[in-house]
Design a protein that fits this description.
497 residues; alpha+beta; four-stranded mixed β-sheet; two-stranded antiparallel sheet; 8 strands
Amino acid sequence: MSLQQVLAPQLQQSLALLQAPTLELKALVEQELQQNPLLEEEPPAEQDHEEKVMRDADTAIIARGDTQTLQQADPAEPPSDVKFDPASERQSSEPVDDFQAEFEKLTQIEEWRDHFSATNLPARSSLEDDEKRQFMFDSLTTGTSLQEHLLEQVRLSEITEEQRPIAEMLVGNIDDYGYLKATVEELSFSTAIPKEKIEEVLRIVQTFYPVGVGARNLRECLLLQFERSGRQDTLECRIVRDHMEALGKRRLPEIARATGEDVIDVQDAVARIGLMEPRPGRAFLPDNDQYVVPEVFVTKVGDEYVVTNNNDQVPHLRISNTYKDLMAQNDASSEVREYIREKIRAGKFLIKSLHQRQQTILNIAREIVNRQRDFLERGVAGLKPLTMIQVAEVVGVHETTVSRAVSGKYMQTPQGLFEMKYFFTSGIQTASGEGMSNTSVKEIITEIFKNEESSKPLSDQEVVLMLAEKGIVIARRTVAKYRSELNILPSNLRKVY
């Protein structure tokens, strides 16, 4: 026997909706639509009608001086006086199974009747829209993989029938970047094929396109490219063939002494080597572009910044009007009635969770904009240190809720599209006592290295002194850490002779 804290299924669902980005949110809602037959997504025309109802309701509230908030008057959520929890049903004086009475009570409320409106609803999509959608799906093409491309060249090449299965086996061991991952010895041991025959076929595969495919390491890949382009006698080919280790450590004077060439000529040769393709299969890699949809829009109106949700991308749900008649039937069995009640509770909670998700993200975004106003005005230089605890205290939620709400979410600002986590950064204290974001410090360090003399690269200690002149006091190891995060090489590897 032991006591454990367990999250209720509804709370788990609410947290999942809060953490999911817009594109994932649609998938989660689609799953709920399949599991709950009482839920359905509103057609666009009906959503416009709801917005009009909301505006009319707001006008009526203001006219009669009602203190009810806009959030309570939202027609997308059942009104607060309509309750479906078992406790409230047991407290009601009406019989639990009197569906006709329940339905009459619901239809007396204008907001709830909108959920069951079954008249004058346009079709979800016309035949023309379906044809356009199908045409779009039919137009999508699937890219050819590197392995498929190589196998096609195997079929078109003039290799013997005995060599063909060996070539297909080699292609199967080439990774997406174009490198042969298994050694010839390993392949010979696993297939019982003589090593000489495998090497003979490998030389044929290495003549395929893209140039450099089938190489076992970077050196061999570059040498294959030199051979294909007829540059075997060039300085850069000699450097790759004989001094690859020194090239990786950028020891240009050492390479110059070994080759008998001038350091400037070696540097130019190294620059030409840098233009070569180290990953031959790059062109055949799948498209890994990630598409994001902003959760929040920030626009400047006059001197103020207005924050709005991207509600167009969030599914609008309602209780299906198909179950209107089922609720009104007196002869329905108790199992059917209980099933409908349970699905109504789940549907209502889902609709409420979606609304709460949007409101939480909006509140957090407003606080971010309030604290990062200088960033919206001046860019990265104006970014201030900000923690999730500070935002959580103002919004009135837990720090973990803020973390879930900003995870994978993006904000469209006048400065561009940024992940909401971007605005939460640690900071350092300047000489004037003000806080500065470490992102701003990294931006300053980037500019310092960008403007340095290539023949006399700055050391980390020199950067520390330059930052101190700007009132930014940090340690040398901190500069080294930021430089590493910015993918900037040490000074000895940045030097240009």
